[in-house]
Amino acid sequence: MKTAHEIRPGNMIMFNGSPWVVQKTETTRSGRNAAIVKMKLKHVLIDSSTETTFKGEDKMDVIVLERLDCTYSYFADPMYVFMDAEYNQYDVEADNMGDAAKYIVDGMEEQCQVTFYEGKAISVELPTTIVREVGYTEPAARGDTSGKVMKPAKIVGSDLEVMVADFVKEGDKIEIDTRTGEFKKRV
């Protein structure tokens, strides 16, 4: 069992007696009250989605399912196709990708974990950190060096925009935390 604030996009949980894949989580903390976790859930077996709110300490049954290490192969609308080491292909619906779809680019080399429920590929988990190339960002502002200065940067091969440190320039490779979407460092 995990608490609601330990649940991440891509996890499978039992909710109201049915299996659901977590597509998005958003934790809100306020000073006096307990943390609240809003989740967007998609039913695994039928085409149904819901958004629900849990207290941060609510206990949930996480379903342990078969997982395979795969690499992204290509996008065949509306399916993302992944391939394992033995060249078997698995289709994952775009709706089940959640936030992971933002980080998928052609030619990516990172290993993903494809999750299966009753033999069907239902979700994908990315590594915690991925490296991407900055396609466009504004030049550093001269003299603006006090504090933590951040600016937006577009990532090559996707529509993803990440806030990066002021010293990052076009063509740099940066490390991004896929859980939060935050810039970690230049590599």
**Helical content class:** under 10%
Number of strands: 16
Determine the number of helices (DSSP H or I, runs of at least 4 residues).
0
Q: Within the largest sheet, what's the order of strands? A: 1-6-2-3-4-5
Shape: flat
H/E element string? EEEEEEEEEEEEEEEE
The fraction of residues assigned to DSSP E strands is over 45%
Structural class: mainly beta
Mean pLDDT, rounded to whole units?
89
Break the fold down into its secondary structure elements and pairings:
Layout: E1 2-3, E2 12-15, E3 18-28, E4 36-43, E5 49-55, E6 59-62, E7 66-76, E8 79-83, E9 89-93, E10 112-117, E11 120-125, E12 129-137, E13 150-155, E14 161-165, E15 173-177, E16 182-186
Antiparallel strand pairs: 1-6, 2-3, 2-6, 3-4, 4-5, 7-8, 7-10, 8-9, 10-11, 12-13, 12-15, 13-14, 15-16
Detailed description of the structure:
The chain is built from no helices and 16 strands. The protein starts with a strand and ends with a strand. The strands form 3 sheets. Strands 1-6-2-3-4-5 form a 6-stranded antiparallel beta sheet, with no helix packed on it. A 5-stranded antiparallel beta sheet has the order 9-8-7-10-11, with no helix packed on it. Strands 14-13-12-15-16 form a 5-stranded antiparallel beta sheet, with no helix packed on it. β2 (12-15) and β3 form a beta hairpin. It is flat. It has strands at residues 2-3, 12-15, 18-28, 36-43, 49-55, 59-62, 66-76, 79-83, 89-93, 112-117, 120-125, 129-137, 150-155, 161-165, 173-177, 182-186. With 187 residues, the protein is mostly beta strands.
